[in-house]
């Protein structure tokens, strides 16, 4: 953080803190918190980039870091996108690998005095992140997963997003709105005419996305707007306040003592 109190980034993705910035910020808080954006590299229809989930996670994390005294980390850009394998360009790693990467990052942070890690997840298929947070109890690292379904629902209502969370599954109104606000240069023409719904997706894990959509889109991107994207990010930033208070509290309900504790935040998909 510079002397003016602002944070510099490259394309909204990479934090440019120096080690002195990190030391200065850590000296002013009782508990140091790091924020790790976790995205993916997967198809998002013909009009959004493969890096959409990473861009969304970074946009959320960037707003959070501007509002709260947290250490912003660079994103994890490839994750568990196996359900999108039918489309060219999609790249995945195993859930075991993602689990190990996040745990290694948490261990490294703890070694430098940062004992709290919040995962900002931009991809709903990263189910393993919930397990990482759940298993962190007693590990010496407090962890939380953000945003939860309830945070997205509150943000959707505040921003005036008309599509339900069930219908707005992929490359729909929410994701397109956030990119129209944060990175409009990355949104190609065609989202205005790409609406497609498939609310009954009970066999998604077996069939993959290709069992439900030819275009890769499930949602109503035609209803997206930059204004909605801005309000979505503002609402999520406000919601993060409860997480920050929780993970920086002296003790948690699950704590056995004041040290070596962790937080589990409920998440649903």
TrEMBL record:
Cofactor: Zn(2+)
Keyword Acyltransferase appears in the UniProt entry: no
Gene Ontology MF term list: hydrolase activity, acting on carbon-nitrogen (but not peptide) bonds, in linear amides; metal ion binding
UniProt keyword annotations, A-Z: Hydrolase, Metal-binding, Zinc
Any one Gene Ontology BP term: riboflavin biosynthetic process
InterPro entries: Creatininase-like_sf (IPR024087), Creatininase/forma_Hydrolase (IPR003785)
Family: Belongs to the creatininase superfamily.
Protein name: Creatininase family protein
Native organism: Streptomyces sp. R41
């Amino acid at each position: 953080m510079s002397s003016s109190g602002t944070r510099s980034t490259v394309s909204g993705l990479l934090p440019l803190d120096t080690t002195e910035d990190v030391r200065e910020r850590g000296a002013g808080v009782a508990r140091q918190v790091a924020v790790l954006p976790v995205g993916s590299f997967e198809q998002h229809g013909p009009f959004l980039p493969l890096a959409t989930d990473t861009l969304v996670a970074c946009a959320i994390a960037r707003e959070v870091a501007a509002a709260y005294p947290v250490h912003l980390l660079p994103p994890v850009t490839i994750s568990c996108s196996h359900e999108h394998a039918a489309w060219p360009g999609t790249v995945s790693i195993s859930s075991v690998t993602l689990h190990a990467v996040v745990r290694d990052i948490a261990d490294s942070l703890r070694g430098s005095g940062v004992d709290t890690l919040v995962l900002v997840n931009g991809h709903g298929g990263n189910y393993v992140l919930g397990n990482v947070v759940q298993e962190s109890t007693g590990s010496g690292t407090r962890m939380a997963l953000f945003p939860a379904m309830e945070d997205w629902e509150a943000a959707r209502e505040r921003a005036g997003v008309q599509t339900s969370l069930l219908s707005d599954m992929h490359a729909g109104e929410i994701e397109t709105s956030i990119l129209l606000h944060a990175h409009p240069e990355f949104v190609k023409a065609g989202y205005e005419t790409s609406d497609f719904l498939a609310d009954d997706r009970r066999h998604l894990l077996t069939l993959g996305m290709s069992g439900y959509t030819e275009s890769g889109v499930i949602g109503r991107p035609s209803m997206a707007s930059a204004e909605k994207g801005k309000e979505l990010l503002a609402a999520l930033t406000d919601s993060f306040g409860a997480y920050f208070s929780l993970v920086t509290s002296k003790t948690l309900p699950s704590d056995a003592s004041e040290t070596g504790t962790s937080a589990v935040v409920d998440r649903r998909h």
